[in-house]
Amino acid sequence: MGSDLYLSSPGAPSRDVLLVSAIITVSLSVTVVLCGLCHWCQRKLGKRYKNSLETVGTPDSGRGRSEKKAIKLPAGGKAVNTAPVPGQTPHDESDRRTEPRSSVSDLVNSLTSEMLMLSPGSEEDEAHEGCSRENLGRIQFSVGYNFQESTLTVKIMKAQELPAKDFSGTSDPFVKIYLLPDKKHKLETKVKRKNLNPHWNETFLFEGFPYEKVVQRILYLQVLDYDRFSRNDPIGEVSIPLNKVDLTQMQTFWKDLKPCSDGSGSRGELLLSLCYNPSANSIIVSIIKARNLKAMDIGGTSDPYVKVWLMYKDKRVEKKKTVTMKRNLNPIFNESFAFDIPTEKLRETTIIITVMDKDRLSRNDVIGKIYLSWKSGPGEVKHWKDMIARPRQPVAQWHQLKA
């Protein structure tokens, strides 16, 4: 009775009023905490998200002429080379598909990614970042089949972000088209001079080819860098089984280029060191040893020696070479060569290391090459930068030989 009188007495707060007050207090506290976190997130993540939006690019949408070429296949038919069709504009559906779109979901995904980057373990991810595969670019092409004319149509449209294979920091790319396992009948695009984002827009016809045989083939595209004075350098390849493609209509693909496989496995590795002396304007290249070299002779061995070329821009300046090691796939050379390189020319300098197989009766064979400069592959660039960062100190590194 006393408690009832107390609760009902004038001026005393009721139980409901006390409960509402407590709820309001808790709500205000949560709001303050959330606002603080929101401002913290904005300060930490806002700038980086803004930059990520600003750096998003879109594929180019240039157009060119369409050229039709045809090839006669073993299945029969007639080989025809038709004239280029001027002014024909290809329908490029993938350009629209690949354009970036900004939305609320993109913002959420970006913020989530940034949170993961700030979380523990991100240092380990960054440590493995340099181990990613070298980017070889990508290629766009279309493929379809005409049942009435028994003709397979392959259209090579364009490529993007191709690596530089020439000393001038560019490439002269073209594409070879095969229907594997047939390697005798191939078609080629034109060469696009000094272009890392070439547009071909060329159409190729494989005529007189029954559908039941088409679906047993693999479309193989090989992108190469044209070289007037030596063998063309492979850039990358794409293969797609035609039984996995709906050939009833033209299908357009974007495919990442993969390293070219010549079916012969590894070419071996070479250990060499670089020593840069800025005061003497010189680089000392030491060819130390090789291991697991590819056997080039019939007897299952090779007679290796190493050529070292100093290149400035597109010009060959000086050449040195080691002695030949007879019948040895793991030779030890331990030979050093000095090259005069002024500091101001260092950025335009490339050192080409070529491991050769000596042949007495015919032309010497190339086992593999290494291009050393500030714009080569990731491993080569690392060696070049380490050499500059540690002047007058020999910096040794193993390199995988490439075709």
From TrEMBL:
The chain crosses the membrane at residues 17-40. It is a single-pass membrane protein. CDD domains: C2A_Synaptotagmin-7, C2B_Synaptotagmin-7. Belongs to the synaptotagmin family. It is found in: Cytoplasmic vesicle, Phagosome membrane; Cytoplasmic vesicle, Secretory vesicle, Synaptic vesicle membrane; Lysosome membrane; Peroxisome membrane. GO terms for cellular component: axon; lysosomal membrane; peroxisomal membrane; phagocytic vesicle membrane; presynaptic membrane; synaptic vesicle membrane. This is Synaptotagmin-7. It comes from the Eukaryota. One of its GO terms (biological process) is calcium ion regulated lysosome exocytosis. Homodimer. Can also form heterodimers with SYT6, SYT9 and SYT10. Interacts with calmodulin (CALM1, CALM2 or CALM3). Interacts with CD63; required for localization to lysosomes. Interacts with APP. GO terms for molecular function: calcium ion binding; calcium-dependent phospholipid binding; calmodulin binding; clathrin binding; phosphatidylserine binding; SNARE binding. PANTHER family: SYNAPTOTAGMIN, SYNAPTOTAGMIN-7. Gene3D superfamilies: C2 domain. Residues 53-106 are annotated as: Disordered. Residues 135-255, 266-399 form the C2 domain. Keywords: Calcium, Calmodulin-binding, Cell membrane, Cell projection, Cytoplasmic vesicle, Exocytosis, Lipoprotein, Lysosome, Membrane, Metal-binding, Palmitate, Peroxisome, Phosphoprotein, Repeat, Synapse, Transmembrane, Transmembrane helix. Pfam families: C2 (PF00168). The keyword Transmembrane helix applies. Residues 90-100 have a biased composition (Basic and acidic residues).
